[in-house]
Amino acid sequence: MVNGIIKKLGDDLVNNILVRFPVKSLIRLKCISKRWYTLIQSTTFIHLHLNYQTTIQHEFILFKHSIKEPNEFISILSFLSGDNDDGFNHLFPDINVTSMSSDFNATFYPLLGPCHGLIVLTDLTTIIIFNPATRNFRLIPPSPFGCSQGFHRSVEGIGFGFDSISKYYKIVRICEVFWNPWDGYPGPKETKIDVYDFSMDCWREVEHVNLPLIYWVPCAEMLYNEVVHWFATIDMSIIILCFDMCTEIFRNINIPDVCNNLTHKQYYGLVILRGCLTLISYPNPISPTDPINDKVHVWVMEEYGVSNSWILKNTIRVVPVESPLDVWKNSILLFQSKNGHLISYDINSNEEKEHILHGSPGSLSVIVYQEGLTSIPPGSQNSSKAHNF
Q: What global pTM score does this model have?
């Protein structure tokens, strides 16, 4: 009876109905019929579903944090949903990803993305791409590029995004190769750019002009408009270095003049606030706390790529900040505090909250994402296959 009714429904009507369901329900609905299975698996439907799930009601949070044990850091991924204004609920059991963290310091190696519901987790040696909604993941082949004996190759920046021209995903790494003698200072650095192209399932080096040095801070490597963004330095000034995933060309964006100094009194982060690239300027977390003068400044770029379109939108005072993390519900800034707690600040109501989510100071990483049905891009016959976690 049910199958008979289903067969009478047109594809447009079925699409209009199914696109409203969450991923978890759609996975179950694929079992209704072969027709529904094919439809839900189709690229057209996946894109429709991604475009429909764009409101703040469809936002979820991936939360990475580390707990310090006597001899190592235990790193955990938590999959969360917002429960109105009361906090977060766990969607799935937590996952131990200790093998993806540095034993020396859990601060580095944040999450990358999201891009079409996909997220990358890396310790700069091992790289995993996964879909937190479908719980599928795949290990990316290691880069084959090394360096001569006596030299060291260091990954300074990494990004993940989609090339809408080739219709494939890419991972980009900015590497520095330098002489690393055992009894002296490192020698001159040479920049190398590695790109992992999912269409070819391999790494390749990209030619480039001289690039500025990456200025590492916890909240950068931001994907926006198919462009990855990092902070970098030129002549004692801080700029935003951009890499276009389609053209594979680098360019620079200036930050507001008032922010541009290397006195180490201010740190910087990048987030997307109400659809705009946003610069968060905050006190250096290493400096002593100054309750009177310490403020966080929120600068919004109203016209993307135009450096003189930066507008100071908010100046706020929150608990001592280790770094910004992301934006939730279009108006709630997420921070990690110096004591390792997750803090939220609503720029509309000026309400600040401390959540029960916490970890070792400096170890928190957050990505706010919309669930999607996007499949993990397959590799070649010799590559690892997608698995469930």
A: 0.89
